[in-house]
């Protein structure tokens, strides 16, 4: 039985004041939440959030890491650094990083490795663009993105990986995939993992991301192969985020 996981991705949205009230709001409503809940925050706020969530069930994550462990990489942040501030999870391969910062599947696989080497759990994002969807290439795209990780790290690496299926056309657009559309791709991903290991396929959490909100979370999360959500916009309001957490 896979546990429901709800992860907030704050993207580049935060201030010291907003962090204090958002985390305070989430913590005050966590009673009755059975899902594993984490927030992936911008780097400068890791320390603040680490202190605010101390002693709670809320977990901390980051949104990116460098592929290297340390060295002359000006402006970059390593997995060990974010771990030092209490982050146990890190998003890798978010579509915004793939499209805006040229991260290829090979780079994403190396970031996945960097996270695992540091003892962290990567949230590996995969998903097709609208163009790919329209031309019937969803499965080809997702397969290439997943296979890049299997090729570099082997199927056993998925013991510590959370997959997030995020159709690019649904991110931040309000155009959520229907539960049927999302379930079909989640099952495709699970079957793909199952070609290498049925055990891993059954154990790997596969989250849905893309305009998930308080109104559609229950329907999406109740699909058999959807194990939770990666939430962008709706993770910035404690009340909305908590409603999604309670859907799991
Ligand atoms: C995301 O950024 O991962 C995301 C799913 O965003 P949104 O929920 O706003 O679509």
What does this structure look like?
It is a single chain. This protein has 248 residues and is of the alpha/beta class. The protein is built from eleven helices and eight strands. β7 (206-209), α10 and β8 (228-231) form a beta-alpha-beta unit. The longest helix is centred in the middle third of the chain and has 16 residues, at 138-153. The protein starts with a strand and ends with a helix. The mean pLDDT is 97. Phosphoenolpyruvate is lined by residues 9, 11, 166, 171-172, 209-212, 230-234.
Secondary-structure map with pairings?
Layout (H helix, E strand, L loop, with lengths): L4 E5 L6 H13 L7 E5 L5 H7 L6 E4 L16 H6 L4 E4 L2 H6 L4 H13 L3 E6 L3 H5 L3 H16 L8 E4 L13 H16 L3 H6 L2 E4 L7 H5 L6 E4 L6 H9 L2
Helix pairs in contact: 1-11, 5-7, 7-8
The structure holds phosphoenolpyruvate.
Q: From N to C, what is the helix and strand string?
A: EHEHEHEHHEHHEHHEHEH
User: How many DSSP-defined strands?
Assistant: 8
Oligomerization status of the protein chains: single chain
Gyration radius, in Å: 17 Å
Structural class: alpha/beta
Sequence of strands across the biggest β-sheet: 1-2-3-4-5-6-7-8
Strand content: 5-15%
Ions, cofactors and other ligands present here are: phosphoenolpyruvate
* Overall average pLDDT: 97
Number of helices: 11
CA-CA gap between termini: 13 Å
Q: Low-confidence spans: pLDDT under 50, at least 5 residues?
A: none
Biggest sheet details = 8 strands, parallel, barrel
Tell me the overall shape. globular
